[in-house]
């Protein structure tokens, strides 16, 4: 038999029916000999009984259909569908946001000047003003090196491209198509050297190949074309350079040149 | 048991509502808590590892959710206090006087002690089950039961009477002390 007195915890365990038969007897014997402890235990027992009475018969409470498991399952399925739809919408919104963000980024970083405007300006300068170009060329401060039409040779062009446009596409020899190189000049842009090579045919039509480094922030060109005044500019990027062909809009030679440059 | 049987859940609903009411002390909040508990139970049934008593498992979910929501509202109250400069949770002297006259001893106990007394005295769970349900060691279960019973004695002297509860779902159970 246990010789020690039950602790307070033992009394609670007795009340809560957590003891085995032997332990129960042990506590009951103690309570019989200690009326004060028995009174204390009675107080707790009464409290417990009243608590049970207070919360008795919860099944008689007004029912709440929102708590029915079938309803909850149904709601969960509905919510899952809604979640899926929301996720799909989010993906779309995100996609739209990214696209417009990218477009906005493009718009913000894009050169405000239309693409290859310098090529068009070079064409205008060196075709329409061929006669005055000679005098300008003598001005070293203008930063232009020139080869007069008469002096342009294939070797010079090759050297010019190899020196300044390493890995760039060389101006093709189009003599088989009746096109001769009339002029070739090294020019200057903010990003570095550029060059123009002017072709002409026996009908007096002139077209120009233009090569330059990419624009600010290494901005590359989407392939495209645009009409500017009486001129057509076709342009694209390839490797480290931007290219343009400037010609009259109806000049059939431009297609030959473009094909040669893009496929070489 | 591979699926959670709706009929089993329906059978346990009254007990869950009762336990929730003892914690939230408000019928509407209690039902919200039960609903959240059932949602959690239905969605995590497959992940349930123990084969123990379904009732104890549901009680433990309910109790955890109650503690979590109370923690959240406490955080919210602290945040509110930070911005407004006063505490929305500290009752005025008048509020305290009203509380003393209207609430019974049980309702004035801390939620942890209410949960314990409900589980042991009303639901008849074993100390071991209570330990698992409330996620506290056995020794703590016993010491808290002892504290809770003493506190209840001291507060109410056991003299209270049960008011009819069929009137409204939104009124907390009213227990009036009879002197």
From TrEMBL, chain A:
<dbReference type="InterPro" id="IPR041916">
    <property type="entry name" value="Anti_sigma_zinc_sf"/>
</dbReference>
<protein>
    <submittedName>
        <fullName>Transmembrane transcriptional regulator (Anti-sigma factor RsiW)</fullName>
    </submittedName>
</protein>
<keyword id="KW-1133">Transmembrane helix</keyword>
<keyword id="KW-0472">Membrane</keyword>
<feature type="transmembrane region" description="Helical">
    <location>
        <begin position="84"/>
        <end position="102"/>
    </location>
</feature>
<keyword id="KW-0812">Transmembrane</keyword>
Automatic annotation (TrEMBL), chain B:
<dbReference type="InterPro" id="IPR013324">
    <property type="entry name" value="RNA_pol_sigma_r3/r4-like"/>
</dbReference>
<comment type="similarity">
    <text>Belongs to the sigma-70 factor family. ECF subfamily.</text>
</comment>
<dbReference type="InterPro" id="IPR036388">
    <property type="entry name" value="WH-like_DNA-bd_sf"/>
</dbReference>
<dbReference type="Pfam" id="PF08281">
    <property type="entry name" value="Sigma70_r4_2"/>
</dbReference>
<feature type="domain" description="PhyR sigma2">
    <location>
        <begin position="11"/>
        <end position="62"/>
    </location>
</feature>
<feature type="region of interest" description="Disordered">
    <location>
        <begin position="159"/>
        <end position="179"/>
    </location>
</feature>
<keyword id="KW-0804">Transcription</keyword>
<keyword id="KW-0731">Sigma factor</keyword>
<dbReference type="GO" id="GO:0016987">
    <property type="term" value="F:sigma factor activity"/>
</dbReference>
<dbReference type="InterPro" id="IPR039425">
    <property type="entry name" value="RNA_pol_sigma-70-like"/>
</dbReference>
<dbReference type="InterPro" id="IPR013249">
    <property type="entry name" value="RNA_pol_sigma70_r4_t2"/>
</dbReference>
<protein>
    <submittedName>
        <fullName>RNA polymerase sigma-70 factor, ECF subfamily</fullName>
    </submittedName>
</protein>
<keyword id="KW-0805">Transcription regulation</keyword>
<dbReference type="InterPro" id="IPR053866">
    <property type="entry name" value="PhyR_sigma2"/>
</dbReference>
<dbReference type="GO" id="GO:0003677">
    <property type="term" value="F:DNA binding"/>
</dbReference>
<dbReference type="GO" id="GO:0006352">
    <property type="term" value="P:DNA-templated transcription initiation"/>
</dbReference>
<dbReference type="InterPro" id="IPR014284">
    <property type="entry name" value="RNA_pol_sigma-70_dom"/>
</dbReference>
<feature type="compositionally biased region" description="Basic and acidic residues">
    <location>
        <begin position="159"/>
        <end position="170"/>
    </location>
</feature>
<feature type="domain" description="RNA polymerase sigma factor 70 region 4 type 2">
    <location>
        <begin position="103"/>
        <end position="152"/>
    </location>
</feature>
<dbReference type="Pfam" id="PF22029">
    <property type="entry name" value="PhyR_sigma2"/>
</dbReference>
<dbReference type="InterPro" id="IPR013325">
    <property type="entry name" value="RNA_pol_sigma_r2"/>
</dbReference>
């Amino acid at each position: 038999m246990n010789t020690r007195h039950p602790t307070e915890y033992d009394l609670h365990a007795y009340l809560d029916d957590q003891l085995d038969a032997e332990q129960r007897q042990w506590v009951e014997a103690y309570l019989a000999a200690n009326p004060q402890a028995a009174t204390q235990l009675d107080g707790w027992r009464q409290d417990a009984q009243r608590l049970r009475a207070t919360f008795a018969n919860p099944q008689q409470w007004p029912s709440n259909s929102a708590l029915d498991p079938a309803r909850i399952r149904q709601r969960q399925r509905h919510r899952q569908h809604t979640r899926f739809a929301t996720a799909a919408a989010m993906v779309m919104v995100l996609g739209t946001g990214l696209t417009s963000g990218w477009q906005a980024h493009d718009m913000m970083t894009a050169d405000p000047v239309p693409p290859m405007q310098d090529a068009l300006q070079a064409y205008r300068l060196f075709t329409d003003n061929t006669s005055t170009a000679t005098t300008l060329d003598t001005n070293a401060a203008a930063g232009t090196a020139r080869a007069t039409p008469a002096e342009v040779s294939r070797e010079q062009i090759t050297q010019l491209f190899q020196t300044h446009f390493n890995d760039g596409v060389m101006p093709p020899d189009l003599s088989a198509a009746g096109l001769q190189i009339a002029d070739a000049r090294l020019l200057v842009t903010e990003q570095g050297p550029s060059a123009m090579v002017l072709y002409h045919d026996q009908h007096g039509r002139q077209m120009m190949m233009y090569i330059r480094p990419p624009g600010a922030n290494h901005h590359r060109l989407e392939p495209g074309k645009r009409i500017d005044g009486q001129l057509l500019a076709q342009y694209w990027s390839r490797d480290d350079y931007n290219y343009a062909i400037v010609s009259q809009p109806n000049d059939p030679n431009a297609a030959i040149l473009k094909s040669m440059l893009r496929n070489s | 048991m591979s699926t959670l049987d709706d009929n089993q859940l329906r059978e346990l609903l009254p007990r869950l509502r009762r336990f929730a009411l003892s914690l939230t002390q408000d019928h509407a909040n209690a039902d919200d808590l039960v609903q959240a508990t059932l949602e959690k139970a239905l969605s995590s049934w497959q992940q349930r590892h123990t084969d123990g008593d379904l009732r104890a498992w549901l009680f433990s979910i309910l109790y955890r959710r109650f503690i979590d929501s109370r923690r959240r509202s406490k955080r919210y109250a602290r945040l509110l206090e930070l911005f407004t400069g006063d505490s929305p949770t500290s009752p005025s002297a008048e509020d305290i006087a009203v509380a003393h006259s209207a609430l019974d001893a049980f309702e004035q106990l801390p939620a942890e002690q209410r949960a314990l007394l409900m589980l042991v005295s009303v639901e008849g769970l074993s100390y071991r089950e209570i330990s698992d349900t409330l996620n506290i060691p056995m020794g703590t279960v016993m010491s808290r039961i002892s504290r809770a019973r003493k506190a209840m004695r001291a507060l109410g002297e056991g003299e209270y009477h049960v008011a009819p509860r069929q009137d409204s779902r939104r009124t907390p159970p009213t227990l009036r002390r009879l002197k």
